[in-house]
Each structure stands twice: as structure tokens, then as C-alpha cells.
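It is worth pausing here to work through a concrete case rather than discussing structure prediction in the abstract. The textbook approach is simple: state the sequence, then state the predicted structure, then interpret. We follow exactly that order.
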Amino acid sequence: MPEPSLDVVRRWGWASVVANIAIVVTGGLVRLTGSGLGCPTWPSCTDESYVPHGALGIHGAIEFTNRMLGFVVGVIAILTWLVVMRYRPRRTDLRRLATAAALGIPLQAIIGGVSVLTGLNPWIVSGHFLVSPIIITLTVSMMRRSRTSPYPHTPPVVRALATACVVAVWLAVALGTVVTGAGPHSGDPQTGRNGFDPTVISQLHADVVFGLLGVTIGLVIATRVTATSRALRNLAAWLLAMELLQGGVGFTQYFTGLPWVLVLIHMFFAGVLIALVTAVYGERGTPAT
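Step two, the predicted structure:
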């Protein structure tokens, strides 16, 4: 077989990003439909079978489907890793990122199993979710590093704002999992919550989002008044648009009683937001000389 090109590496990277955003959505569907214990044990579905039976109903089917998608995500991660390993000339940076992303799949499966065995402890469920954004970050970083053209020189203010956006997005996403752990969508009616006041933690989450919007607006302005690449200007604009859309969905779901469809859309946008801010950070370039 011919050695893969960087275009092939990027295509497999895209497949991995899409798959990981998809499992964020299906994992959210598991929780939002109360199917978190549809398969009451792990790694098998029940003590007698690895697959659900009729007595488990729709909840068992939903949970098992999410587990099967995990295998698909794992296969894509392995194939991406193999493509990167076969690429010549050897790229140590790409290999490290692909390896870390591939290792994230079994880690996520183990944390998911622990969450089931602990009756959906909200903190463990949060950790289970956060593995997907980490894998998305690693994979997008790998794709950005696979570029053949040199990184553009970028003013320090743009680099600092891009870094601040990454920190703010991750803080917002992490706090979002805490909000979820305090809210009504636990994944199972018998599951306890994390003990935080939902109103207080939601306000803190919103405050971070407002800060993120301010930093991103600053980034958009900075990329237009300084010498930056067109790619970075476009990515910054897309990042701001996604934050506004995500914020709109977040406020709407909060004031309408958290309908599960809007919560699911909010989770999907969170995956896209992580990918976008990672791309922005990867395009920030080098200091201007």
C-alpha cells in the first residue's frame, strides 16, 4: 500500500473529530432519556449477557447503542493512529498526538464503566464526558500541525487572546458538567446529584460564558486591526458566532425548564466549540518579528 499523504492524515483526523462529537451526542441522549443504567453493569450489559434483552426495554437499547458507537470511535482512532505511524517522513509530534487520542478511547470506556458500577456518580459522569473534548482537542491539534506551509507571524496580543479563549472555553465546558451534575437530567431517576445549588452554579457558568464572549470579541477585533492570516481571522469569527449560538441555546434551555432536545443541541455545540477554539489556538502562529 502507498504511504499516506498529509491529506489522508487530515481526512482521518476529521473522521475522528466527527465520531467523537457524535458520541458526545449519543452519550447525552443516554443521560437525557434516563437510560444511564439501561445496561445495569459493565463491561457486559447484564450479569448474564453482553447484549440487552427485552426486559430492559428502550433504555437498554439506547445505552447499548452508545456502547457500540464507542467501538466505532475506537476503530477510527486506531486507523488514524496507523495512518500517522505510516506517514513519511516520520513526524514525532503527529505520532504523539495520535497516540494520546487513541489511548483516550479505552480510558473513556473504563471511566464509563466505573460510572455505571457506581450508579452514575455525577462526578464520574462528568469525567466520562470530558474525555471526548480532550480527544477532539488532540485530534484537531494533530490536523493543524499537519500543515505544509509555515505558521504565520502573529502579534503577541492575538496570541494572548487566542490562549485566553482556550482557557475560557475549557472552564465553561468544565463548569457546564458541574451544572449538569446539579440539574435534573441525571441519567436515572435513582441517581443522586452533586449537591451544588443549580441556580448558583448556573450563574457562575453564565459569568464565565460572558467573559469568554468578551475575550473572543477582543480576538476578532485584534485579528482585523493587526497583521494576521485570513485563516485566523475567519476562525475567530466562526468561534464568536458559535459562542453566540451556544449561549442562546443555553439561556433558552435554562428559562424553558431544560427540555432535553435543547440540552442535546447544547452538548453538540460544546463539541463543535472545542474543535473551533483548538483550531484558533493552532492557527495563532509565531510571535511577530
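Step three, interpretation. The first strand starts at residue 153 and ends at 154. The mean pLDDT is 92.
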